[in-house]
Amino acid sequence: MLGLIKIIITSLANLIGFSEEVNVERSYRPAKEVHFQITHSMPPQKIEIFKSLEGWAEKNLLTLLKPVEKSWQPQDFLPEPDSEGFYDQIKELRERTKELSDDYFVVLVGDMITEEAVPTYQSALNSLDGIQDETSVSLTPWAIWTRAWTAEENRHGDLLNKYLYLSGRVDMRKIEKTIQFLIGCGMDSKFENNPYFGFIYTSFQERATFISHGNTAKLAKEQGDIKLAQICGTIAADEKRHETAYVKIVEKLFEIDPDTTVLAFANMMRKKISMPAELIYDGEDCNLFNHYSAAAQRLGVYTAKDYADILEFLVGRWKVDKLTGLSGEGRRAQDFVCGLAPRVRKYEERAREKAKKAPAIPFSWIFGREVQL
Ligand SMILES: [Fe+2]
Ligand SMILES: [Fe+2]
After folding, report:
1. What is the per-residue pLDDT for 26?
2. 203 C-alpha to center of ligand 2: Å?
3. d(CA 39, CA 30)
4. Known catalytic residue: 213?
5. N or C: which end of the chain has fewer CB within 10 A?
6. For residue 35, what is the DSSP state?
7. What is the DSSP secondary structure assignment for residue 85, as one 8-state letter?
């Protein structure tokens, strides 16, 4: 009976438009609906493929990691708390960030929060059959890669977080709340525990982060903060190296198992490659992801054109149009993937048209100041 009453109340709430509030009360449930999740879609026998690739991964993947001793650290770019010039360095940082625009801060904060949710991405990688780190200290090259990749990524959020904190231009408490919400809510990866899906996603996503950090670097330079430009550029270089690694894995999968790989590529593109922070929420704006990505689109940091460009790049890099000997289903997937970019570009035109009419929206991250979307 109680269950029935709950259903009726929920339906009524949905009907009169309170559905978001009903969800919001459940703090660690995503503010947005997460659809049914398919699990373990890769046939178990395919796990052998990933076992057989361990020698390859050792040679081709682990060599793309940077040794810790040669890696940059956030402290290399930040005021030195143990130096006499600490306060002057903070003053200089604040002078530099004074000129940065509100919309730039919104996009940079969104990027930083996305980086800060790295525990979620490590979990997602460790959900993939055949490559997961089964003991948290496993010495398979796949597990070593995932841990070291996470450790490299962890510096990105650290650095941007500290820089933004010192700027004094953003509401750190609201940002920290958003990070806690996001990590608590997770990510709708749609990986299905399937490493074919997972590696196609990471190839796409690392290139997307390379592009967006590259663009925030360019904008920081234009708006007069050379140091921040250097920071974003340095992070972008890491993303590029990660992209190289994931693209190589998928290239190898295309070589040894083209049919499954092209089907996986089409499957992921049909589901759309959603950004990892899609479930972002600050406790106030139930549409925060759409608002943040509209700001990024308007500012030219990450746009629908970039999405189409990445897709086109990957199709070319993996020579998808040249694959032969595919099954009927494989050929259909090949046609779909190869013909998708022009359709995305059309969508981009429509998005640009829509952007002209978009409203200004307040963002909690910048003390409720409004940004034109
Ligand atoms: Fe990153
Ligand atoms: Fe990355």
Report:
1. 58
2. 10
3. 19
4. no
5. N
6. P
7. T
Pull the structure tokens for residue 324.
């032969």
What pLDDT, on a 0 to 100 scale, did the predictor assign at position 30?
A: 72
DSSP state of 327: -
How close is the Cα of 354 to the center of ligand 2, in Å? 31
Residue type, 4: L
Gap from CA of 94 to ligand 1 centroid (Å): 24
pLDDT tens, 298-340? 999 999 999 999 999 999 999 999 999 999 999 999 999 999 9
Of 140, 209, 261, 303, which residue is the catalytic one?
209
Dist CA 245 CA 251 (whole Å): 10
- Say how many C-beta atoms besides its own lie within 10 A of residue 46's C-beta: 15
- Residue 25, C-beta contacts closer than 8 angstroms, at least 6 positions apart: none
Assess whether pLDDT exceeds 60 at residue 5. no
321 is catalytic: no
Residue 365: active-site member:
no
pTM for the model stands at 0.91
Q: Does the active-site annotation cover 242?
A: yes
